[in-house]
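During the second year of the project, the team shifted from modelling isolated chains to modelling whole assemblies. The rationale, set out in the original proposal, was that interfaces cannot be judged from single-chain predictions alone. As a representative example for this report, we include one of the complexes processed in the last quarter. Its constituent sequences, exactly as entered into the pipeline, are reproduced here:
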Amino acid sequence: MEFHLDQRSGLPMYLQIVQQVKEALRLGLLDVGDQLPTVREVVGVLAINPNTVAKAYRELEREGLVDAKPGRGTFVAGTLIASSIEHHEELRRALLGWVVEAERAGIDEESIRALVSSTLREALDRRVA
Amino acid sequence: MSAPLETTALGKRYRRTWALRDCTLTISEPAIVGIAGPNGAGKSTLLGLAVGLLEPTEGTVRVAGRDPRHDPAALAEIGYVAQEAPLYRSFTVGEMLAFARASNNRWDDALATELLAGASSQTRVAALSPGQRAQLALALALGKRPALLLLDEPFALLDPLASRAFLGALMDGVSETGSTVVVATRLVADIERVCERVVLLGTGRVRLEGTVEELLASHRLLTGARRPLGRIRGVEQIVRERYSGRQATLLVRVNGPIVDPTWSVDEIGLEDLLLAYMAPEELQPPQPPEPSRLRWHG
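Output from the structure prediction step:
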C-alpha cells in the first residue's frame, strides 16, 4: 500500500499513517498476513523521518493490528472489518442524538464541526501523551 | 553509546563579534535535528565547530564523545556537506565514488550507489544538475555511515522537486545508517516534515530548543479584546503581543490548560512559532487601549 500525507491536516504524521492502515483494514484492502511497506520504502517515497514510520508501526502493533518480525518486516495480524461495522450503527445513532441536542441548544453547523474536531483532537492528544 | 553531538557553553568569536556564544546542546540519541535561524545567526559556525573546521573560542564540542578538532578518529564519525556541496567539478561521478572509497576506512559502496538516483558514473560533476550534485554530495557523506551527518543549507540551490527528492534520499539513507542528522536551514518549511528536534539560533545565541512535539504542545495563540494584561491562568510566559484595533493576539508559553473564556485559544504551527521567536524586536510592552477615535471637537 502507499501512504499519503497532509501536512496541513493538524493530525500528527504518524497518526495519519496509523489511520490509513486502519482504513485499508476496514475496507479489506489489507488482510492478515499481508506485509506493510518497509520503513525504508516509506521514508524514501514520502521524505519523512524514519522514526515517524516506526512510531506508527509501533502504535499499530500495540493495538494488535500488526506484527513486527525482526529482519523480515511488519505483517498484518488483525482485521477491523467485523468489529467496526458492527458498532457503526449504534455509534451513529448516539452521534445523531448529540447533533439534535446541539442544534436545540442553538449551536450552528460550523460551531458543531469546530466542537467535534477540537474534542477529537483533544482526546487523541491525551491518548498520545 | 556516547551522544552523537554534545556542546557545552560553546562559543566562537571573530575579532570582536561573537558568531556563536554560550551554546549548550545535547543530542543524546539518534535524531534529525533542524538548526533554524536567519542569516548570520551562527548556524554555519555551529556546524563548522562540530566538524572541526573551526577552533572554539570557548567551551567544548564532542561528536560521539570525541573532540572533532584534535581527535582524528572523530572525523570517521562525521559526514559533512558544506553549503553549495563543493565537489571536484572535473571528476566524474564514478571517480568521486572511487575517491571516497579509497579515502574512508568504513565505506558502504552499495548504499552510496543507491543514493545517487541513477546519475551515470561517466558523467562529470560539472555536468550534473544542482539536484544531482546535492544527491552526490549526500551519497558521499552517507557512504561513510557516519554517526553524525551535518548538512549546511542543502536546499538553498534546489527547486521544490529536487528538494523533495533530496529529502527522500536523505531519509532513505538515514533509515539505513541510523545517523543523527543536523541540518541548518533558513527555511523552516524545508525541515518541518522530518525534524524531531529544532534549535533556533539568533545572533549567535540559542533562542529556542526542544523536540517539535514539546514546542508545539507548550505554545498557544490567544486572541481576545485588548486590555491591560494581568496574569492569565495556564500562561507561563507571554512570548509576543500584537495589537490591531481593539484586538490582542498573544503568543504564549503555557504550563496548563487555559480556561479563561475571554481568550480564544489556537494551536500554532512550527513555522509561525519559530518566526515569532526570530523577531524579538516585535516584543511590545503592554499598552493601554487606545481612546476612542470618534470624538467631537466642536
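The longest strand of chain A covers residues 66-69. Chain A touches chain B through 15 residues (CB under 8 Å).
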